[in-house]
């Protein structure tokens, strides 16, 4: 058993993909740059346009910012490993990546839950929406989203950091909490219990989202205007939730039951295991940018450099 501060983890996920490292580096770099561009474009567009200073767009900016954080917790280390001969990470660096990745995951779930609540009020309580969702409540919901996510992530990382380790090989391309816990020399019951608490918490959030969508579907069927609002704002939100949840569930199942499958399919396993860090941050701003007319219009106007048309439409 080693002193944890002296541990250097070896990431073995890329071992079978080294022959194509140039291709993977180009794909990863392109994906990261596109992710940055589309998220920053949407955030800047909402920030600069006063007509977009509405709760739904503020929550969307939070989703995009969180996506940037999640992507930045994954891509830089991956890009470094694709050009390096040794795929290693220090103990502190691994815990830092775990903290950043899981904070992104929890904030994504909580942010999507807040957006579902906002859409419920907008469609099912349209006359009272302004009163129920003032700027103060929007700020409070954002504060709670980040504080709650940071708290539950911090507790998990502290529990993991207290485990003595008897191994240093991680069969993935990035650090995850479960991979480090598996290397422990002692009983990890407390970590497992806390993991189940987190799982129950976020399953409950998913349940709240589904309940809100039951009401949203019923409300949207009554009026044509509600139906249009549902397809413009709720369908993208539901798509983002399904993509994120599906990719995250795959990663959890793969980490617990599919690790060590190696061989010629290692690259595919790597891609699927990292999907929740790659796909949602990339497609969320694209989905919303395409479906939300106000955002799409503003982005196109900014790209076409037609201030006179912009002024007339404003």
- Helix content range of the residues, please? over 70%
Helix/strand/pairing category: mainly alpha
Give the number of DSSP strands: 3
Mean pLDDT: 82
**How is the main sheet built?**
3 strands, mixed
Question: What is the gist of this entry?
Answer:
The chain is an all-alpha fold. The protein has helices spanning 21-48, 55-83, 91-124, 129-132, 135-161, 177-181, 189-220, 224-258, 266-273, 275-291, 293-304, 307-313; strands at 8-11, 88-90, 169-170. The longest helix is centred in the C-terminal third of the chain and has 35 residues, at 224-258.
Protein described:
The chain is mainly α and 314 residues long. It contains 12 helices and 3 strands, in the order βααβαααβααααααα. It has helices at residues 21-48, 55-83, 91-124, 129-132, 135-161, 177-181, 189-220, 224-258, 266-273, 275-291, 293-304, 307-313, and strands spanning 8-11, 88-90, 169-170. A 3-stranded mixed sheet has the order 2-1-3. The longest helix is centred in the C-terminal third of the chain and has 35 residues, at 224-258.
List keywords for this structure.
314 residues; 3-stranded mixed beta sheet; 12 helices; 76% helix; globular
List the helices and strands and how they pair.
Elements: E1 8-11, H1 21-48, H2 55-83, E2 88-90, H3 91-124, H4 129-132, H5 135-161, E3 169-170, H6 177-181, H7 189-220, H8 224-258, H9 266-273, H10 275-291, H11 293-304, H12 307-313
Parallel strand pairs: 1-3
Antiparallel strand pairs: 1-2
Helix pairs in contact: 1-2, 1-10, 1-11, 2-3, 2-10, 3-5, 3-7, 3-8, 5-7, 7-8, 8-10, 10-11
């Amino acid at each position: 058993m080693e002193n944890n501060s002296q541990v250097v983890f070896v990431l073995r996920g890329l071992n079978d993909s080294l022959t194509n490292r140039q291709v993977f580096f180009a794909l990863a770099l392109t994906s990261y740059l596109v992710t940055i561009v589309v998220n920053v474009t949407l955030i800047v567009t909402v920030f600069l346009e006063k007509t977009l200073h509405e709760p739904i767009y503020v929550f969307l900016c939070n989703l995009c910012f969180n996506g940037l954080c999640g992507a930045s917790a994954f891509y830089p280390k991956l890009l470094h490993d694709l050009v390096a001969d040794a795929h290693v990470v220090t103990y502190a660096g691994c815990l830092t990546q775990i903290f950043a990745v899981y904070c992104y995951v929890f904030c994504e779930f909580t942010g999507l839950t807040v957006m579902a609540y906002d859409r419920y009020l907008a469609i099912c309580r349209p006359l009272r929406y302004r009163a129920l969702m003032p700027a103060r409540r929007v700020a409070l919901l954002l504060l709670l989203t980040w504080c709650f996510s940071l708290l539950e992530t911090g507790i998990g990382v502290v529990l993991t950091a207290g485990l003595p380790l008897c191994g240093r090989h991680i069969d993935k391309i990035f650090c995850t909490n479960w991979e480090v816990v598996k290397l422990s020399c002692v009983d990890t019951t407390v970590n497992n219990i806390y993991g189940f608490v987190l799982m129950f918490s976020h399953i409950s959030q998913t349940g709240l989202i589904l309940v809100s969508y039951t009401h949203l579907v019923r409300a949207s069927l009554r009026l044509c205007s509600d139906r249009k609002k549902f397809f413009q704002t709720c369908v993208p939100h539901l798509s983002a939730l399904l993509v994120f949840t599906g990719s995250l569930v795959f990663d959890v199942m793969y980490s617990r039951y599919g690790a060590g499958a190696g061989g010629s399919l290692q690259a595919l396993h790597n891609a699927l295991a990292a999907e929740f860090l790659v796909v949602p941050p990339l497609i969320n701003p694209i989905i919303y940018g395409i479906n939300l007319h106000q955002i799409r219009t503003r982005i196109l106007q900014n790209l076409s450099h037609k201030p006179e048309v912009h002024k007339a439409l404003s």
